[in-house]
Specification:
By secondary structure, the protein is an alpha/beta fold. A seven-stranded parallel sheet has the order 14-15-13-16-17-12-18, with helices on both faces. A six-stranded parallel sheet has the order 19-29-28-20-27-26, with helices on both faces. Strands 2-1-4-3-5 form a five-stranded antiparallel sheet. Helix 7 packs across helix 8 and helix 24 runs antiparallel to helix 25. The chain is globular and about 90 Å long. The two termini are about 55 Å apart.
């Protein structure tokens, strides 16, 4: 008797289990781990599932197994190394494999069924139906079928479920599920000679045959001159190019096709631009950089991740390129992670010069089709495939086969942490795990290491290589503190600038030099307020004040996107005395335009960089000195390299220093040190002006002295005392419900269960700073776990407690999730 095959599959759903399906005998020869298959899940839904495991073990239980309906791939689209990494993410970050699957694959590779509704041809419309039901049925009979979204639009409702349910019960309609695949290969219509015409005599005969038809003759002559008789012969021409250049209509081409002289066919082409030829442009390394490369290679031999602690403008990128070159010579691949999409444009230009089309980008600003093509480009590992991939955090999920080096640039950045939705992973930590899976060296580079990484150096888990010399001997920038309180008291402020910063900006502009100003708030003003009674407009969906955006002429919630117009009167006392409070990048840009009318000023924040190429456009203009002053949020702090920036201004350091978080001093140092590093990177020494009301703050002195070690040692004492990372591991449990009372009951119940297991290591539940977002009330419970405690056991107890609370009948609608190592 033949052995039956079963497949355990992963569904793109937040479900902890893998599901077993029967493999029909006809499918068995084509079944492989890592391919996609179509399966039915539930009564009506179909999904593209990923084959996780193939076996012959009959599942236990008294139920009928469903069969796999179709196979979507001939070869695996996910390799074994990826599946191992997915399992680690699911286990470590307390989420399901389905959530990892959904996050890892480009959306266009995940199919999901949609309901199509059609009329039952055997049903006769009678007086039993009301007007709405009759109208819908007539519409369906006219169109043949419609999906749920189209029906909702026709009825003018958010949900048409009730109407459809009645029609189903009366057997008036039929419903079916159809899988929808969003990815389609990009094709172009190409024109070539018919296979029946091959010899010169046959070509001459074809030319003679159309001489009397002038347009056809001209089109054929142009085609032949551009292909067969051209000094660089081509077998075919794009149809669009042929018609445009020959100046004829599609009907003329169709006539030649009907005469079997020409043939038109669709040819698949890539969406990726593959036309950069490497000029092997590599910078000459100085002695310090060459020594660093040797130290790194030696450190890689220890099979530990290596932390490269190099001051800003020390030439870390040139060191990376040298290492990449050697890895590519071995025929291996490189993953180069950066924290922000904006960094990829400058970086890829340098990598393209060195490695041509072997270097490519992958990030979320690409559309679905482009992401699929990059996925397959790397998966198939052909001669023209990317060997170096520069990407933001999602690039860690790409299907590398021969990974030889992983670089995590600016490793301290919290942008590497995924906050929502699950999996809430940290790409830096996943990169370290990938290095272990692929047996590839992992290099973490930064001028301001995260405390966790530097602590791992102290524990000998990471190797450390330091580079304390700036490239070409450029001096570190001069950093000075400007006292806002003193300047305000003496009435010396120039709008938002202290006299010191104003004079430095003015001098830089006079010398044709550039300026970067940093303010970590976008919009025109953080909020508006009634001067009479203190009323502040709040978001109707979130417990947060609305931010004033002048270019939109309204108030915007930065949590849910809700917008409203700027009120003319106070909502409480009806006073007309409404004024803005604080300042964001938009207001700074406007004020600078008044202070320096001759200067070209631009802004880099979320509002100005939403479009696909917007980062590149701003950076290109700044590099080419079309912009004199660049105002920005954190985006301007992260590794950008500009030649002519002499002055950097931090407009309000107090916002960073006073943020209510145990990491605020660490992050303040990192941000201020990083943005300072943009000054004086080429040529003469730069200057940094830090505006603050706390001129004697110890963190500011450590920034001025570039004394990371002093900050680290001082903060480590406090963190050990108060049980914070890296000495303890934090897990944040978020509990959400749209009813505040239900939330309180559920959160208190969960906290009580956790205290039985973890005792005094449980904090909360408490409302966070913003206690309601998008009409969901939320509370947080925090776990502080010792590093030496068995983490897997603790997580299991945590997830069991969460499942127990969610399963109670009164907790319908309660959302609970765990965030491991929150940033």
């Amino acid at each position: 008797m033949p052995v039956q095959m079963f497949a355990d599959v992963i569904l793109p759903l937040p479900l902890n289990n893998k599901f077993t399906y029967l493999v029909a005998p006809g499918f068995e020869p084509n079944m492989k781990v890592g391919i996609r298959v179509v399966v039915q899940f539930g009564a009506r839904k179909f999904f593209s599932a990923l084959v996780f495991r193939l076996h012959d073990q009959v599942p236990e239980g008294d139920f009928e197994l469903k069969q796999i309906d179709a196979i979507l791939d001939q070869e695996p689209i996910v390799n074994q190394a990826q599946i191992i990494a997915w399992e680690w993410v699911a286990n470590y970050y307390c989420c399901s494999l389905g959530e990892v699957y959904k996050a890892a694959l480009p959306s266009a590779l995940k199919l999901e069924s949609q309901s199509n509704v059609s009329p039952n041809p055997n049903f006769q419309i009678t007086g039993e139906l009301n007007g709405e039901e009759t109208a819908l049925l007539l519409m369906l009979q006219g169109r043949g079928q419609a999906n749920i979204r189209e029906i909702n639009q026709f009825l003018g409702k958010k949900s048409s479920y009730a109407t459809l349910k009645i029609l189903l019960e009366k057997n008036a309609i039929l419903m079916e599920e159809q899988l929808k695949e969003s990815y389609k290969p990009k094709t172009v219509s190409m024109v070539r000679l018919s296979k029946e015409i091959s010899s010169p005599a046959e070509i001459e005969q074809a030319v003679e045959g159309v001489k009397k038809a002038r347009k056809q003759s001209e089109l054929l002559a142009y085609f032949l001159s551009s292909t067969v008789f051209h000094h660089e012969p081509r077998h075919s021409l794009p149809k669009k190019e042929l018609l445009e250049q020959a100046g004829v209509s599609d009907a003329v081409l169709k006539a030649l096709i009907d005469k079997k002289i020409l043939v038109s066919e669709s040819v698949e082409i890539g969406r990726l631009k593959m036309n950069h030829l490497a000029d092997q442009f590599l910078y000459d390394l100085n002695t310090a950089q060459e020594n660093t490369v040797l130290e790194l290679k030696q450190a890689f031999q220890s099979n530990r991740p290596v932390l490269l602690h190099g001051v800003t403008s020390s030439g870390k990128t040139e060191i990376y390129i040298k290492l990449i070159e050697e890895v590519l010579d071995e025929g291996k691949q490189v993953l180069y992670l950066v924290p922000e999409i904006g960094l990829t444009s400058q970086l890829i230009t340098r990598l393209k010069r060195a490695f041509g089309d072997r270097a490519g980008i992958y990030h979320s600003k690409f559309n679905d089709a482009e992401r699929v093509e990059i996925w397959f480009n790397i998966l198939h590992d052909k001669k023209d495939s990317y060997q170096v991939v520069v990407g933001a955090r999602s690039a860690v999920f790409l299907p590398f086969k021969k990974l030889g080096l992983i670089i995590v640039d600016e490793e301290h950045e919290n942008s590497y942490k995924q906050f929502d939705p699950a999996p809430r992973y940290n790409a830096r930590d996943l990169a370290v795990v990938l290095g272990q899976i692929h047996q590839a060296p992992v290099l973490l580079g930064t001028a301001t290491p995260s405390f966790e990484s530097y602590y791992n150096v102290k524990l000998n888990k990471y190797a450390l290589v330091e580079l304390n010399e700036r490239y070409q001997g450029i001096e570190m920038p001069e950093i000075v503190v400007a006292d806002i309180r003193k300047a305000t008291r003496q009435r010396q402020m120039k709008s938002l600038l202290t006299p010191l910063l104003y004079e430095e900006v003015k001098l830089a502009l006079e010398n044709k030099e550039q300026v970067i100003l940093f303010q970590n708030r976008r919009g025109f003003a953080p909020y508006v307020q009634c001067k009479t009674c203190g009323w502040i407009p709040k978001c109707m969906n979130c417990d947060v004040s609305l931010t004033y955006h002048k270019f939109r002429s309204g108030l915007v919630c930065h949590y849910c996107g809700h917008t409203s117009s700027l009120p003319a009167n106070c909502g409480a006392c009806h006073s007309e005395d409404i004024q803005t409070k604080g300042f964001g990048t938009e207001q700074i840009e406007e004020e600078l335009g008044l202070l320096f009318p001759e200067a070209s000023i631009a802004r880099m924040d979320l509002d100005t960089t939403r479009a696909k190429r917007s980062f590149e456009q701003i950076i290109y203009k700044f590099e080419n000195r079309q912009i004199d002053i660049l105002v920005g949020t954190q985006m301007v702090t992260k590794g950008l390299d500009f030649d002519h920036v002499r002055v950097v201004g931090i407009l309000n350091a107090d916002q960073l220093l006073n943020y209510p978080d145990f990491r605020s001093f660490e992050r303040s140092f990192q941000l201020m040190a990083q943005v300072s590093g943009r000054a004086g990177r080429k040529g003469k020494r730069g200057k940094v002006v830090i505006q603050t009301s706390q001129a004697s703050h110890e963190v500011l002195q450590e920034v001025i002295d570039n004394n990371f070690i002093q900050l680290f040692n001082r903060q480590m004492q406090e963190r050990k005392l108060f049980r914070y990372p890296p000495y303890f591991r934090l897990i944040k449990i978020v509990v959400k419900h749209k009813n505040r009372d239900r939330l309180d009951m559920g959160a208190n119940h969960l906290a009580g269960l956790l205290r039985k297991q973890f005792r005094n290591r449980v904090l909360g539940p408490e409302y966070p700073v913003v206690g309601r977002i998008q009409n969901w009330y939320q509370k947080e419970i925090w776990l502080k776990l010792e590093k030496n405690k068995v983490l897997d056991q603790s997580k299991k107890m945590l997830m069991d407690a969460i499942d127990q609370v969610k399963s109670l009948p009164n907790n319908t609608g309660l959302v609970i999730y765990a965030d491991v190592d929150p940033m």
